[in-house]
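User: Hey, my collaborator sent me this sequence without any context and asked if I could get a structure. I don't really work with proteins. Can you help?
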Amino acid sequence: MKKYLILILVCVGWFSLSQLSLTGYKNRTAFAADETLVPVSAEDNIPVSTDSIPTAHAKAIIKGTTSSSPIDGSVTFVQTAKGLEIGAFLINVPSPGLHGFHIHEKGSCDDEGKAAGGHYNPEGVQHGDLNRDGHGMAHAGDMGNIAVAEDGKAVYEGFLPDISLTGGKYNVEGLAVILHEKEDDFGQPTGNAGGRIGCGIIILEN
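Assistant: No problem. I've predicted the 3D structure and written it out in structure-token form, which is a compact way to encode the shape of the chain:
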């Protein structure tokens, strides 16, 4: 009789443990199904902000504005949720130092860059540094200065908040990037940066 009683107790205990395991599995499955999927870093499994995910790319090939100018280079644009990340590399710029570097209102490099018009300024505000001063105190195309080394090479990294390549209020696709002969001193109305020695058109890439 004792043997039968022990056997019954063992069966009851096994059944109870099975039910608990099944309930735990169902709870875990339901929790996983309710989780919101977010991008994660493959390296460390940490969620990544969608603000930094590129949505469009463009490039401007910079050439000298005169036939004898050796200036060459490119400017790349990456559109993100917060604005444009910009990188530039130029060579053979004749004078070392700081040079004004702006997006202009038209998409032409004719007439030694004069056909590009003025700075891209859809809000009609004063000149400044867009990343530093914001849209109320700077032109939408105000990128500041690019530094040219003694060997004529120049590297630039910058960011333009709220500027885009596809749609949006401040779309610069198809406009001109101008390299000026002098430093942008942020004086009014356009920084006193002198003539236009380099120019390229912002072209959207696939």
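In plain terms: The first helix runs from residue 2 to 34. You can pass these tokens on to your collaborator as they are.
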